[in-house]
């Protein structure tokens, strides 16, 4: 027997009428109840083999399915049945779900296998006329070995094309979700140009932004469809910005007095009069010369076959569009909102950049969702804060909620994980694909270089303070304007877009009104969870968009828990909870209780150690947290007591009474688990022989999942603080040498389950090679341990 795995189904179908749902997909009709149990059972199982093109091939396929050790499925029909043991029913279903009898499960224990793997099955011992419809409905909603529900696999295999002799209805719903009814051959693509009403490149003209969309051919005035929009600045490819990445080597600056509260904030985005055109067109040809440089977003591919249009929007300064890049500035949000308003039917677009022929989206039902990961999901949050007409929901993965929290932290220049030396100006250069066309390069080169030079000054890598530049890129301050339902996903081990980004937006949305805000927290890094086996993510998203864009009353906004989190000890277990920010108790530990001394000192010579011994951050960090002797004098280390069976829920607080021998200083705190024998991996691996189709006719996508592993040291959370910013990132305090100050700061938020055996270690040190600057001057720090403590937010 292979090792038992576990599915976690947060999607709920209990509110649906099984008979009505089966009628929708032509699985049964009104004659069904008038026929015998045996005839109806055969009718059902015959429908589960849509690939069989003849009666003989169907017999052969069913002969390969055993219901007991010596009885294949095809022999059931040789006798008239009045009932069937539920064990035998589910034994057959398990095999149709592509689980292997004798390897994955035993024929005599099919129900136990499904239950232990997290599937929701019926408790009845026997299938008969009275409950057959319920068993059929239940079976179609079970998840196959490839992660999709049985009904989705049947549709991919051609079930609906057999069930409907005429054209399939669009959309077609089953159990509150859309089914795949549109093959790729029935899709059309077109490019339109949206008036942003901005002049970002200062040429005296309105910036027109290209929008590429794909929709069903039959969509139009008589068949209106909703739209899924992904704003991807990477859509047309990226520039090589390696030479423009900033060198992190260098000492911290002594800061002048500064208080952001005293700084004036000007709204410098001036909207120009909207362009108009006397002539109107019905369609716009897709310009094949403008090839995209990035792959489509997988979640969007899933929905293209399910009765949705999908639009990609790269934004100002990208290929085919006017304007410049600003790395999350207000202009990017304004322009994207203009695209949403076109897609929802609230403004015109144009067939080309002459703006001589206008277009109306008469095929749109007026409802738009935004999807995307990282920068893509970030723009979804940004647009949600402005409430453009037609935006009904967002599904945002690994997204930034404040660009300060991406490139800065508590008065420090802090890099996103994996991109040391990157900053807002570097990202703007990276995504300025407008340069890919020679004529556009000639027109825009100088003005873009001027804008980059200005951005380098305004982003202020010298002080790392919170300034007007970052305030314009802080969506949290406008989160109260969000009136739509939001579904977020994020990795608890994402050190690129760190968890503080999703934590803060959820906290800001809590209690703001009737809108639902849900989050899925996985154990991965900077990934999309669409292919994870242990979570029914595609089903959740399908229910979500069916409700938000098509108005299906499937109760998803009520049935989903507010927080869905993958367990850090067993990645096949997912928990639900109602809040991330609140904990039952705060466990305070004074650092003096963890040491034989009242003080502890360390030298920040870590930049020197790195330069002399390492060439990459991964091997450095591995040695650092494993306690390599080279770092003995560079850190203060404290082994925490056992907190028993508990869960860290939220942000760990660190209070330090600290002094240093200079007028500058930075402190890093990191909470680490040591010698974890069983721990969820941060990366996924493909499941052997398991793949699934995102949509009709697609190649198979490998099914993946996290796995258990033994780790010597796992970074749970960290935090960084400039000692000249004790009162916040926008306010300066002067630091005097050898004079104690009280520093209070918080680590990245997490949800982390502890056991009696968990060994926690707190590291206090200076520069953090992968994130902070690398000071060249060696600096000494001293801690007063009696007035220093760590506070863990714990739930039982």
TrEMBL record:
Broadest EC class assigned to this enzyme: hydrolase
Segments forming domain Xaa-Pro dipeptidyl-peptidase C-terminal: 542-791
UniProt-recorded Gene Ontology molecular function terms: aminopeptidase activity; dipeptidyl-peptidase activity; serine-type peptidase activity
Keywords: Aminopeptidase, Hydrolase, Protease, Serine protease
BP term (GO), one: proteolysis
Record's catalysed reaction(s): Hydrolyzes Xaa-Pro-|- bonds to release unblocked, N-terminal dipeptides from substrates including Ala-Pro-|-p-nitroanilide and (sequentially) Tyr-Pro-|-Phe-Pro-|-Gly-Pro-|-Ile
SUPFAM superfamilies: alpha/beta-Hydrolases, Galactose-binding domain-like, X-Prolyl dipeptidyl aminopeptidase PepX, N-terminal domain
Task performed by this protein: Removes N-terminal dipeptides sequentially from polypeptides having unsubstituted N-termini provided that the penultimate residue is proline.
Binding partners and assembly: Homodimer.
Similarity comment text for this entry: Belongs to the peptidase S15 family.
Protein name: Xaa-Pro dipeptidyl-peptidase
Organism: Oenococcus kitaharae DSM 17330
Species lineage: Bacteria, Bacillati, Bacillota, Bacilli, Lactobacillales
């Amino acid at each position: 027997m292979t090792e038992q795995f576990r599915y976690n189904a947060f999607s709920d179908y209990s509110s649906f009428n099984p008979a009505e749902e089966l009628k929708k997909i032509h699985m049964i009709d009104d004659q069904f109840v008038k026929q015998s149990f045996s005839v109806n059972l055969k009718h059902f199982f015959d429908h589960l083999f849509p690939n069989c093109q003849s009666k003989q091939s169907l017999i052969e396929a069913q002969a390969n399915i055993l219901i007991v050790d010596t009885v294949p499925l095809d022999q059931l029909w040789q006798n008239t049945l009045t009932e069937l043991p539920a064990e035998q029913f589910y034994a057959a279903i398990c095999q149709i779900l592509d689980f292997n009898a004798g390897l994955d499960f035993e024929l005599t224990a099919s129900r136990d296998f499904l239950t232990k793997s997290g599937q929701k099955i019926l408790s009845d011992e026997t299938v008969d006329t009275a409950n057959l419809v319920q068993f059929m409905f239940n079976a179609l909603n079970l998840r196959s070995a490839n992660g999709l529900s049985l009904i989705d696999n049947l549709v991919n295999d051609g079930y609906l094309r057999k069930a409907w002799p005429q054209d399939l209805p669009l959309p077609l719903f089953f159990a509150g979700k859309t089914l795949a009814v549109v093959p790729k051959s029935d899709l059309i693509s077109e490019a339109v140009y949206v008036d942003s009403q901005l002049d970002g490149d200062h040429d005296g003209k309105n910036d027109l932004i290209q929008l590429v969309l794909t929709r069903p051919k039959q969509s139009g005035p008589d068949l209106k469809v909703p739209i899924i929009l992904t704003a991807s600045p990477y859509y047309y490819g990226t520039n090589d910005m390696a030479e423009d990445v900033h060198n992190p080597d260098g000492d911290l600056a002594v800061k002048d007095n500064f208080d952001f509260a005293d700084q004036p904030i000007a709204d410098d985005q001036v909207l120009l009069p909207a362009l108009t055109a006397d002539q109107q067109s019905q369609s716009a040809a897709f310009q094949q010369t403008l090839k995209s440089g990035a792959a489509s977003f997988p979640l969007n591919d899933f929905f293209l076959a399910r009765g949705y249009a999908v639009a990609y929007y790269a934004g100002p300064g990208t290929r085919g569009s006017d304007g410049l890049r600003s790395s999350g500035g207000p202009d990017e949000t304004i322009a994207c909102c203009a695209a949403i308003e076109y897609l929802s039917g609230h403004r015109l677009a144009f067939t080309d950049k002459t703006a001589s022929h206008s277009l109306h989206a008469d095929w749109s039902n007026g409802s738009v969702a935004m999807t995307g990961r990282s920068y893509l999901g970030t723009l979804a949050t940004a647009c949600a804060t402005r409430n453009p007409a037609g935006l009904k929901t967002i599904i945002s993965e690994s997204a930034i909620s404040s660009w300060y929290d991406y490139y800065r932290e508590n008065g420090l220049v802090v890099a996103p994980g994996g991109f040391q030396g990157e900053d807002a100006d570097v990202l703007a250069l990276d995504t300025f694909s407008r340069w890919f066309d020679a004529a556009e390069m000639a027109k825009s080169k100088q003005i873009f270089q001027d804008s980059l030079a200005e951005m380098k000054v305004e982003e202020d890598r010298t002080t790392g303070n919170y300034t007007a530049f970052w305030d314009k890129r802080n969506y949290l301050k406008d989160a109260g304007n969000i009136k739509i339902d939001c579904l977020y996903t994020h990795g608890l081990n994402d050190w690129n877009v760190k968890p503080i980004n999703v934590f803060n937006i959820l906290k800001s949305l809590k209690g703001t009104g009737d809108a639902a805000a849900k989050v899925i927290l996985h154990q991965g890094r900077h990934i999309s969870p669409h292919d994870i086996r242990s979570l029914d993510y595609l089903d959740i998203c399908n229910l979500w968009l069916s409700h938000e864009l098509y108005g299906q009353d499937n109760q998803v906004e009520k049935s989903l828990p507010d927080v869905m989190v993958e367990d850090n000890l067993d990645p096949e277990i997912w928990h639900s909870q109602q809040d991330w920010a609140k904990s039952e108790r705060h466990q305070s530990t004074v650092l003096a209780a963890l040491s034989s001394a009242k003080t502890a000192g360390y030298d920040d010579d870590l930049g020197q150690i790195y330069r002399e011994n390492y060439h990459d951050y991964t091997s450095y960090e591995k040695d650092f947290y494993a306690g390599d002797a080279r770092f003995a004098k560079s850190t203060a280390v404290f082994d925490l007591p056992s907190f028993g069976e508990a869960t860290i829920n939220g942000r760990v607080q660190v209070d330090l009474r600290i002094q240093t021998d200079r007028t500058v200083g930075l402190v890093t705190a990191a909470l680490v688990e040591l010698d974890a024998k069983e721990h969820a991996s941060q990366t996924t691996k493909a499941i052997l022989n398991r793949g699934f189709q995102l949509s009709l006719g697609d190649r198979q996508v490998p099914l993946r999942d996290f796995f258990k592993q033994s780790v010597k040291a796992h970074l749970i959370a960290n935090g960084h603080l400039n000692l000249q910013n004790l009162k916040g990132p926008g306010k300066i305090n002067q630091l005097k040498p050898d004079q104690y100050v009280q520093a209070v700061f918080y680590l990245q938020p997490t949800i982390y389950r502890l056991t009696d055996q968990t060994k926690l270690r707190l590291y206090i040190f200076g520069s953090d090679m992968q994130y902070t600057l690398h000071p060249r001057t060696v600096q000494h720090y001293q801690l007063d341990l009696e007035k220093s403590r760590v506070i863990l937010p714990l739930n039982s």
